Amino acid sequence: MTPRVGQIGPYRFYFFSHEPNEPAHIHVDREKFSAKYWLDPVSLAHNIGFSPTELKKIESIVSRNSKEFLEVWNEFFQS
Questions:
Q1: Of 9, 38, 49, 71, which sees the most CB atoms within 10 A?
Q2: 10 Å Cβ neighbour count for 29?
């Protein structure tokens, strides 16, 4: 199961249901590119294909929405 958290601009935000033992994080995809960000504190965990400039833009989006992303993560894994 892949709980979808939302779409912001060209980016799709989601997490995997089989990752409850990892710290809270969010995956983000655009076309063939993918990245993973830890949510507390917000930091890049993994990147496939995004440029440094785009990663900064994505990190800004993740930072602005980290509270919501954490709420969805906690709600899903505490259910």
A1: 38
A2: 16
